Amino acid sequence: MESPLKLGILCHPTFGGSGVVASELGVALAQRGHSVHIFSHRRPIRIPLDHPKVTFHEVEVTTYPLFKYPPYALSLATKLAVTCKEVGLDLLHSHYAIPHAMSAYLCRQMIGEYAPKIVTTLHGTDITLLGLDDSFFEITRFSILQSDGVTAVSQDLARQTEEDFQLDRKVEVIPNFIDTERFHPKNRNPECRARFVGEGEYLVGHVSNFREVKRVLDVIRIFHGLHYHVPCRLLMVGDGPLLEPAKALVGELGLQEKVEFLGLKENIPQLLPQLDLFVLPSAYESFGLAALEAMACGVPVLASRAGGLPEVVEEGQSGFLGEVGDIEGMTFKAREALEDPRRLQLLRTGARHRAEQIFPQDRIIDTYESFYRQVLEKSQIPNERTP
Q: What percentage of the chain carries pLDDT values higher than 90?
């Protein structure tokens, strides 16, 4: 039996995407006996307070009049170096190249000979938006090349990273995963559903951070076309810059009695199974974790054919895919899902089956463990780490 590892996980404390994946990866690794240290400026919501193998390190940033913006990356690097010297971490797993992989690199430079290896997982916007900005391109590329192992959450993101940053090294693909016991159709509850829909009505839902890339207004427009043909209501879960514009559009379209905004919710595993259709018409998703969570709950997904979403949602089996911005086409596919009860049940079954078979937590945690040990065992190859 292989010895347990001492692992550091660097992440953002977000409600979705990379923060959720990093947090749940850390907890799953701790349950396998590894010592896991989580580093962030705020405790991620899915990190338990009292797990014996999980230690949370809050990165405090001191304000100083000289700095217009507090230098978080430097504070994080310092916290990492201090912790590594105290407990001897084997490996730092950075979720997002900037700032986390750069902070891990600075930590290694400070420590020297016994510094931990670095694995960087790319989640999307660190590459597709931030990384391609002229202000960050070179340092993002440098951070990737200085990492001992690099992964991406989808084939699409791996390909795009290798091409855009002209890498001569392979980006491994390790997809996001789902706990299929926690996200389960058995959590569907008639009493809970009755809070949102009446007899004979369908429940449509969307969960996101309400940023422009999520095309939240498209969700409302699709629902607007759908509700003329199918008795249904819409739940909007989350918060962000487009919350108020979304509420305004609901008012313009006269949908106030049909749409409910729930804000940020932590009980997503209990909420998602109440839905009949999940809508995610994003302009881009590197993977689409929210879609996978819905599918694990037996909820078919209507999504855009963008980024890694076609790797998650299987057309006609676990949901439907449409072109970005095609409101009419997506509305038609939503009707196709909901107007035929038999078809809807097949989609429910297909969604759950795909989540269980392709993205189960245990198998993908196995992959991460194997990847860590490969990184720890292989000798450093100089040209891999030279920009």
A: 80
Number of Cβ within a 10 Å radius of residue 39 = 24
pTM of the model: 0.91
Which part of the chain is CATH 3.40.50.2000?
6-177+361-385, 185-358
What single-letter amino acid sits at 91? L
Round to whole Å and give the CA distance between 257 and 231.
13
**Domain 185-358, what fold?**
Rossmann fold (3.40.50)
Which are the contacts of 226, defined by CB distance < 8 A and separation ≥ 6?
A: 204, 232, 331, 334, 335, 338
Q: What CA–CA distance (Å, rounded) separates 347 from 106?
A: 48
Residue 5 gets which letter from DSSP?
P
CB-CB contact of 13 with 43 (8 Å): yes
Q: How far is CA 51 from CA 9, 109, 138, in A?
A: 15, 31, 39
The neighbouring-strand residues paired with 301 are 278, 319
Q: Is 104 exposed, middle or buried (0-12, 13-18, 19+ CB in 10 A)?
A: buried
Burial of 94 (0-12, 13-18, 19+ CB in 10 A): buried
Are 153 and 120 a contacting pair, CB within 8 Å? Answer: no
| Model confidence at 96: pLDDT above 70 | yes
Distance of alpha carbon 88 from alpha carbon 197, whole angstroms: 54
Cβ pair 322, 328 in contact under 8 A: no
The per-residue pLDDT of the chain, averaged, comes to 92
Q: Kindly report, residue by residue over 251-282, the tens digit of the pLDDT.
A: 999 999 999 999 998 899 999 999 999 999 99
- pLDDT tens-digit profile of 279-332? 999 999 999 999 999 999 999 999 999 999 999 999 999 999 999 999 999 999
CATH topology of domain 6-177+361-385: Rossmann fold (3.40.50)
Label residue 326 left, alpha or beta by phi (over 0 means left) and psi (-120 to 50 means alpha): beta
Q: Which of 2, 113, 146, 93 is nearest to 368 (CA)?
A: 93
